[in-house]
Amino acid sequence: MSFALGLTGSIGMGKSTTALIFAEEGCAIWDADAAVHRLYEKNGAAVDLVASMFPQAVVNGRVDRGQLRDIIAGDERALPRIEAIVHPLVTADREIFRAAAQSDIVVFDIPLLFETGGDTGMDAVACVWIDAETQHRRVLERGTMTVEQFTQILQKQMPIEEKMARADYLIQTDTRQHAAVQVRAILDQIRKQIQNA
């Protein structure tokens, strides 16, 4: 079984870029957001289950994320009900991926790793981080969300200081080059650990 490394951080802190660096270094990458997209697509495992609870959320045979957001915004009981459907499916997808992975280290890119208790299934956790000012600038430069939406997302996430305190490895993402140096050092350390086990 491959070594499971959880990769987490807060929005705009460079997690996706860091996951790419891990991939370049020979790691298999499982992306939680991509798994949810697969579950919501036509014939995805979540479509019929979501439709049975919130029929208006399914449009043209796939779960419409915009509709889902509106439902969640209008009903505080909706999110836990949706999570009860999606989380077990995501966990199953992750386990299938890990069992089939050919690389010695599998990186699990999970934004809410600590919040969902996903860290308990990992051999170690790496957390990306950057100062709040850079984070704010990066998120707003994408042009995909307002300051209010950014603030709402931050409120749902565990404070970055807490994530950093709980992680085994920290990766500062001030530049891609610096992140790559840290990724290589982490992989060296894990591979030595695997050899000595």
TrEMBL record:
Its EC number is 2.7.1.24. ATP binds at residues 12-17. It catalyses: 3'-dephospho-CoA + ATP = ADP + CoA + H(+). It is found in: Cytoplasm. One of its GO terms (molecular function) is dephospho-CoA kinase activity. GO terms for biological process: coenzyme A biosynthetic process. Keywords: ATP-binding, Coenzyme A biosynthesis, Cytoplasm, Kinase, Nucleotide-binding, Transferase. Pfam families: CoaE. It comes from the Bacteria. Pathway: Cofactor biosynthesis; coenzyme A biosynthesis; CoA from (R)-pantothenate: step 5/5. The keyword ATP-binding applies. Its main location: cytoplasm. One of its GO terms (cellular component) is cytoplasm. Catalyzes the phosphorylation of the 3'-hydroxyl group of dephosphocoenzyme A to form coenzyme A. HAMAP family: Dephospho_CoA_kinase (MF_00376). Belongs to the CoaE family. This is Dephospho-CoA kinase. It comes from Phaeobacter porticola. The gene is coaE.
